[in-house]
Fold these 2 entries.
Entry 1:
Amino acid sequence: MNQDRYDVIIIGSGFGGAAAAYSLAKTGLNTLLLEKGNWVKRDETAWNPKDIFINKHYKSYAPVYVNQNNNGTQEVYFNEVVGGNSIFFGGVALRFRETDFERWPISYMDLEPYYSEAERLLEVSGEPGLDPFEPYRSSDYFYNDLPMSEPSRRIFSASRALGFKPFKLPLAINFRNNSKTLCIKCNTCDGFPCKIKAKNDVTTTLLKRAQEYKLKITTGSIVKNISDDNGTIESVTVVDKQTGKEYRYSSKIVILSAGALQSPGILLRSNLDKYPQREFIGKYLMRHCSAVVSGIFPFKTNPDKVFHKHVGITNFYEDFRNVTNTSVGMIQDVYMPEGETVKYYCPKGIKTLAAFFAGNIQNLMCIGEDDPVKSNAVSLSGIRDSFGIETIKIDHDFTKNDYKRRKYLIGKAKIILRKTGSIFSFSHGIDEHIPPAFAHATGTVRFGKSPETSVLDKNCKFFGIKNLFVLDGSFMPSSGGVNPSLTITANSLRVSDHIVKNFDEFQ
Ligand SMILES: Cc1cc2nc3c(=O)[nH]c(=O)nc-3n(C[C@H](O)[C@H](O)[C@H](O)COP(=O)(O)OP(=O)(O)OC[C@H]3O[C@@H](n4cnc5c(N)ncnc54)[C@H](O)[C@@H]3O)c2cc1C
Ligand code: SF4
């Protein structure tokens, strides 16, 4: 056993883990953050599509086994770095809507003050008042005036001409704070680390602030499992990725923030059989039933290669609420990858053609809410990695209603692209993506009112264990119809506040 005993151990440094690290360390709690990835390099590789997508510089040390639509199992390697997916995210920082909380054990107003805090800490720029389904907000954005580049302006004008109400997407990107590097609006943002640290990922925001307090970050530390003794987590077992040596750490409180794919894996590898909610761990995986709709234009759509994730359209958000008890989702502007990346990922036969036309394409992303289904799940694969740790397997299949909502959004996106000037459009679903994408994974360790339906209580504490919390995308019982990061961050700030206020209760 390692001699150090901490007040708090946090496993994973994405939005959920970093927000908890900031919130808890700043109160003076002695905090250890365990992360299996290493720090990202801010060099020329950061913006090189070949290094990031083809050579996969940040590829995880072990695969995840994915069985999608019952099509057989594939080995998939996700990225692994300090900051988690915040390093690669597209910067969109939207709040869920009031109606998205109907199936949650907390209301929108319980989270609202923490949304404001999350926007402040992530320095989100936005222009309130244009989004027709924008929820109530008690505070203004960090900065108000957002730029809009030419490709976005075209989408914005066409949507308006069609009678929709486009709005500027709120972004956790530094366009205005002169004390830091300003965004140069490049075309390698979504999916890439920011070479100049202008994207407000958690290493430049929450973790940077947290490091001013008693926070120790240990990189290359793979958490194997946690050990429970009669309702208390006694220790966390870690393997050092460099040496293969095993260590154990202990703390008063353990926060699991390894993301919606790996957090259930760690729980399943731990000795938690006696808890009645064990059957729900890893279940109800959601990922958004998204699609990219590509329009082909008779001109170069982004000749200056500028950033253009600027436009959001939520007009259809509530169109299915009475039919499927969910939102439909929304449409967003999204960039077109470089020809080289397109060529690499396209099916044989159309590689060269697709790469040639890449410059004439403009895309819209349809983010469709997906149903929480018990059989969509993370489980243990039975296959061990090079350190003898059992890896995870994902089984996932979208429902008929998921496809119905997506089809509806794709139809609207095609209308917008046509009005923008496209001569032909086609769509590409997230489940057709190679390798399979789980960028918006949520739901696998859901919170709720009782252990008969959920793993965590409303404060994301594991039912029956007094000092274990799960703070990442796993907690969500429904996926909403907008990107998840701001909600993950706000919820982590909310629960961390609860932990600080009631710290003695959890000993
Ligand atoms: C390309 C891309 C673009 C995106 N764009 C947006 C966007 O614009 N807006 C938005 O809201 N969302 C976006 N998302 C989604 C968003 O990034 C994720 O929802 C969010 O980052 C998830 O945060 P998290 O804290 O739940 O987990 P993660 O970010 O997955 O963090 C988990 C961390 O735990 C670590 N970890 C895992 N297992 C272990 C272990 N055993 N031991 C130690 N450490 C471990 C991981 O390495 C990782 O650092 C995007 C995602 C991607 C991939
Ligand atoms: S668009 Fe801005 S924030 Fe994004 S990678 Fe480029 S410089 Fe960084």
Entry 2:
Amino acid sequence: MSWIDRILGRGPKSKAQTAKPLANSIMTAQVPVDAAARKPGSLLPSFPKFQSTAGDQLSPKLSDRFGAARMKLRAAFTPSQPVVDRRMFAGRVEVLTTLIRSLEDQRVHVVLYGERGIGKTSLVHVLAQAARDARYIVIYSSCGATSNFDELFRAVAAEIPLLFHSGFAPTAAEAERGQSVADLLPAGEVSPRQVSDVFAKIIGTRVLIILDEFDICNSTEFRRNIAELIKNLSDRSVRVQLVIAGVAGDLTELVEHIPSIRRNIFALQVPKMATSEIHHLIENGQSISGVSFEPPAMDFITSVSNGSPYIACLLSHHSGLAAVDKGRLKIGVEDVSVAVDQALAEFQGRISRPSQVQIEKLTKNGVRQILGMLAGASMFNGGRFDAADIDVLYPSAANAANCREVIEELTAKGILLEAVEDEYGRSYRFQEEAVPPYLWILAAQKRFLDSAKPSSGKEEAAPAAARAAARS
Ligand SMILES: Nc1ncnc2c1ncn2[C@@H]1O[C@H](COP(=O)(O)OP(=O)(O)OP(=O)(O)O)[C@@H](O)[C@H]1O
Ligand SMILES: [Mg+2]
């Protein structure tokens, strides 16, 4: 039986071989009915247990090669955590080279922006390691909703030893006592000018301050202070540089008061990963976990993730565990299919009930493909897309016009989308963050399965029919 027959449920069925409807897959994902978990002689399953201890020791009952593979898989693919270890970091060579050059050659400050999960935090962690290797003092800080300039920069200054301040010899008593430049900041709320006055006297080293998840803090005052600090540091060629990272569709969304500092920053939108980089990510996980992905399984993951390391990591993780659960160390397309259903269930769980109902109605009406396209446009443009992005998606003018009409209908009715008017014109975004990846995976799953079928059966509705469906 071919793998596609197995996914599509043709031929003899076994428990986890078919791509199940979503509701079933939620059950499959969350309540595995595992005969092996039953106590001998009992009809009741034994009470669920953790499989490894807090010290990462595998339960002796499970210490076979599958138990070990499961543990290694968890470390190899970490969808809910950024990569901090360089050995696990895939691709991004060009991006890193560009970042290092701009920090080192141009001595500018860097702003990294991009969609959720595109790999900003992983990138800044690896950049931080490279800078530490070059003896920079690197201070990483993850911003919070209530980040405050005074608190943040006192903490940053506390990481810079006083011996690097021009006013103190390395043998000065204060430096020997282990004091830091924080001790030189005046009492009270510290201003960007006062911070840059102290930083201006740093010698003998370079300091890299990484402010990650910058989008989470929406205090205008905090953002204005950061822009002012960048301006002050740049005007005085200070040996302190900032790297700011956050979710945004464009630079101005992330850093306010940009006009005054545009010349002093290098802004980089983190691009989606190339196919070869996604393969690299999967191969890294393979070598760490000892499992292997069959080429069609790897293609399935690459196709659905479409350059998103988060989605690739999530699917690799779930499909690896699905295979191991079935007593295999080789991951096939059917395992990825289970993983895709699990990922859909996870994203669906993050979507509000009204949006779920709207999606169900629209996909039934045949707007699935258009929604999938819009989801892609949103995910790979930092959450926002405009008419020009639609023209790129639909090279035919008539289809692009139809798609635009669907968008306007949905926006006018407040269904899933909302319009944003600003200095750059009209653009659109999904009302809920989890909707684009959900729709994207749903459409990619269908595309992949259709492309693998000899005859794809029912076609998606043509754009004109989809437009009518959105209207109804
Ligand atoms: N270069 C990479 N190599 C391997 N895995 C990666 C890479 N970049 C990102 N990932 C994986 O993708 C996922 C998302 O990465 P990360 O947290 O760095 O993204 P982010 O852009 O900071 O996300 P957010 O917008 O939520 O802050 C993580 O699971 C991480 O393990
Ligand atoms: Mg992040």
